[in-house]
């Protein structure tokens, strides 16, 4: 559609807000901080665990406490962004995240660390959907949208690289506490820039009253689900509390769906998730993250404990995965998103990542980094970057502006809950396999050195057992992407006006 035709029709020009590209810088900086924090904590975890006296059974709570709070409150955070204003919610999320990071850096006990991580998750649940929904409502032209999401994804991947390397340097040469304190300057700069640069489109808020029953049911249901998986590791799958958590989560989430279908102003309008493409994206992304998330923890411990890498060397060892993610996002996903149906990027992307994961099932104590880990990480990163970029864009495309926050929250919810489940589930499988291996082989080990060797072999055996499960999960994610996601390439001439209703929404062209 020409500019003249747009004006005649009363539609917004694709140029939109003149500051949108400047705003992207600060939105991406906030995303960089969140990704930086996640990767830094993975690198710093062994040192923090030793310093604070956190047991092996509880170490995953440094990761899971964050994911529980983040995943459980994301829908609430997305709705708050739609109601209160995305810019205001974004700035509040940054300020709270910085304060929680300061608390984590000053932690003196394990429980205080877990509490700080949970608090980071609370404010992250405000920050993440606000950031993604700001992109969704500010970049409405399909070509600009592809470029913006490509840059956003690349900076997020770059944040992973910065986090891995910076985390290694800070842990090795200063102290693990600085891996938390480093978030503060990022948050200050992003919040100041956002305050002065970001301008939300008028009329895009959802001013309906907050759905309190929906908030309570969704939060309690998601927390019960993840805690059930976490409890299964330490107490077994048949433990009374474990079973009770799973039953409670099913009951609560079913009640949530029923409530959302009846209330006048639902927390999660069912139209957001019942759309075939968005539903397929949420499900496939969640499964892919389940497969990926536990792997980061395994590889960190494998490289540092089994291979004896320093924190800095471990950070550099992850770089091929990050390079692959950036390449897949900017050079494949962003370039082809407007030329190919999303399923032809997502399905193959998850398969390529699955092949990389399959290589890691061959991991042993003396595995070669260049021969095995390097190609596996490249394939994992390349596949995930290619799949995630169109998925994140399509998941918020075509929604009414008043639903942009909650649609963005569903993207993050599928990832964060998937991450929490992935960490708990795969850690449970790995621990069980390790215990069985050591029990079967320790009797034949003569002397302490031989027993230590059996212990390391058992650890690697547990990792590979869990990775096999992850391979199957990625294959299922690929199948769902091929099956459910039937949108073709978007029409590059359509825009979303930013009003409370859709005047001309960029609905993807259906590929038959």
Automatic annotation (TrEMBL):
Residues 23-489 form the Major facilitator superfamily (MFS) profile domain. It is found in: Cell membrane. It holds the Pfam family MFS_1. Gene3D superfamilies: MFS general substrate transporter like domains (1.20.1250.20), Multidrug resistance protein D (1.20.1720.10). Keywords: Antibiotic resistance, Cell membrane, Membrane, Transmembrane, Transmembrane helix, Transport. Coiled coil: none annotated. CDD domains: MFS_MMR_MDR_like. NCBIfam families: efflux_EmrB. This is MFS transporter. It comes from Streptomyces nogalater. The lineage of its organism: Bacteria, Bacillati, Actinomycetota, Actinomycetes, Kitasatosporales.
């Amino acid at each position: 559609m020409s500019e003249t035709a747009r004006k005649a029709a009363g539609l917004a020009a694709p140029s939109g807000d003149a500051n949108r590209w400047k705003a992207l810088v600060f939105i991406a900086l906030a995303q960089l901080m969140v990704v930086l924090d996640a990767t830094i904590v993975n690198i710093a975890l062994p040192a923090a665990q030793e310093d604070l006296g956190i047991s092996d059974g509880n170490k995953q709570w440094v990761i899971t406490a964050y994911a529980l709070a983040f995943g459980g409150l994301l829908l609430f955070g997305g709705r708050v962004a739609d109601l209160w204003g995305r810019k205001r919610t974004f700035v509040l999320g940054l300020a709270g995240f910085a304060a929680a990071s300061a608390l984590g850096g000053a932690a003196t006990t394990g429980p205080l660390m877990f509490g700080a991580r949970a608090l980071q998750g609370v404010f992250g649940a405000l920050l993440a959907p606000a950031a993604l929904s700001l992109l969704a409502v500010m970049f409405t032209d399909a070509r600009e949208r592809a470029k913006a999401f490509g840059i956003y994804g690349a900076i997020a991947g770059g944040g992973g690289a910065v986090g891995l390397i910076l985390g290694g340097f800070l842990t090795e040469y200063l102290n693990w506490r600085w891996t938390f304190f480093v978030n503060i300057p990022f948050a200050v700069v992003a919040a100041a820039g956002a305050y002065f640069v970001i301008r939300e489109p008028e009329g895009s808020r959802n001013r309906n009253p907050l759905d309190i029953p929906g908030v309570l049911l969704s939060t309690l249901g998601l927390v019960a689900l993840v805690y059930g998986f976490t409890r299964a590791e330490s107490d077994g799958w048949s433990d009374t509390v474990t079973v009770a958590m799973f039953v409670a989560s099913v009951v609560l989430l079913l009640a949530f769906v029923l409530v959302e279908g009846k209330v006048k102003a639902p927390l999660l309008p069912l139209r957001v998730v019942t759309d075939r493409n968005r539903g397929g994206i949420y499900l496939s992304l969640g499964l892919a993250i389940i497969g990926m998330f536990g792997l980061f923890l395994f590889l960190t411990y494998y490289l540092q404990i089994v291979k004896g890498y320093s924190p800095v060397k471990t950070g550099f060892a992850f770089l091929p995965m990050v390079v692959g993610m950036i390449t897949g996002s900017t050079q494949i996903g962003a370039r082809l998103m407007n030329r190919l149906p999303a399923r032809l990027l997502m399905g193959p992307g998850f398969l390529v990542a699955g092949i990389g994961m399959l290589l890691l099932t061959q991991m042993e104590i003396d595995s070669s980094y260049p021969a095995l880990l390097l190609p596996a990480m490249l394939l994992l990163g390349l596949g995930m970057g290619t799949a995630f970029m169109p998925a994140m864009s399509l998941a918020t495309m075509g929604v009414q502006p008043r639903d942009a926050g909650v649609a963005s929250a569903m993207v993050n919810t599928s990832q964060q809950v998937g991450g929490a489940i992935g960490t708990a589930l795969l850690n449970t499988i790995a621990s069980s396999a390790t215990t069985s291996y050591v029990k079967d082989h320790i009797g034949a080990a003569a002397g302490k050195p031989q027993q230590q060797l059996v212990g390391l072999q058992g650890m690697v055996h547990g990792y590979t057992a869990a990775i096999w499960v992850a391979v199957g999960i990625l294959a299922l994610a690929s199948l769902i992407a091929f099956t459910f996601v039937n949108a073709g390439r978007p029409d590059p001439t359509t825009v979303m006006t930013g009003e409370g209703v859709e005047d001309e929404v960029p609905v993807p062209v259906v590929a038959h």
